[in-house]
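hey can u run this one w/ zinc ion bound, need the C-alpha cells asap thx
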Amino acid sequence: MDNLLNLIFPPKCLFCNRIGDIFCDYCLAECLLLNPQYCVVCDRKATDGYTHTDCKRELLPSQCVSVYLYSGKIRDCIKFSKYGPKQFSAMKKLSTEATAIAYEWDFINLEGYTCVPIPISIRKEAYRGFNQAELIAKTLSWKFGLRYEISILNRVKDTRSQFSLSRKERFQNLNASFTCLEEKVRGRKFLLVDDVCTTGATFLEAAKTLYLAGALDVKCFSLSKKVL
Ligand SMILES: [Zn+2]
Ligand SMILES: [Zn+2]
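ok here u go:
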C-alpha cells in the first residue's frame, strides 16, 4: 500500500524538497558519522566506544556506540517541532540508514543481547506522541537479528512534585528514574537504545537499574551523539 501510494504521490525530501524519498540519499550522505567513539562514563574519546579501563567500575555499561554526530539534519530530524506521518517516515528512514551503517562496523558484537529502548519521558511524549528510541531499537533488532523487548525498563512517573519532598527524598527522586523486574533481567545481556546521547547520564542510570537487577552486561547504542 505504501509503495503504491509512493508511486502515485512520490514523497519529497523534508530537507531539500527533491522528489523521491522523505529523507533523500543526498541529504543522508551529508550527515556526519561519529568518529571516533566516546566513553559513556567520562565522555572522552575511546576506541570503538569501549569504556576506558580506568573508568570501569561496577554497574557501568561496557560499551557505547553512536552512529551520527548530533548536528545538522540529524538534529533537525530528531527535533522536528511538529510530528506527523512525514516526520515519522523520515525518522524511520534515518533509523534504517543508521542501523545499516552500524551493521558494517566490525567492533559491534551483540550476540545474545536483547534490545531495550530507553522509555520516553512524560515531557517528550506529550510533545512527540511516540518514542523514537522504540523505533530505532526495533529497526536495530531486526537488522542484527536480536530480541526486542519493550517492557524491560519502566520510567518512574514523576508525578510527585519535588516541592513536597525532603532533601533526601528529592535526591532519591532524581536518582531512581527507572525500574525493572528482577525476574525479567537476571542473567541476561542488554543493549540500551536511545535517539541522542548527550552526557550519557540517562544510559548510566538505566544501566545501573539493570545491573542491580542482575543483568550480566549492558551496552548502549544511540542514533546520534551530542559532542559538547
Ligand atoms: Zn534531501
Ligand atoms: Zn572513560
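The chain has one domain: 31-225. anyway lmk if its weird
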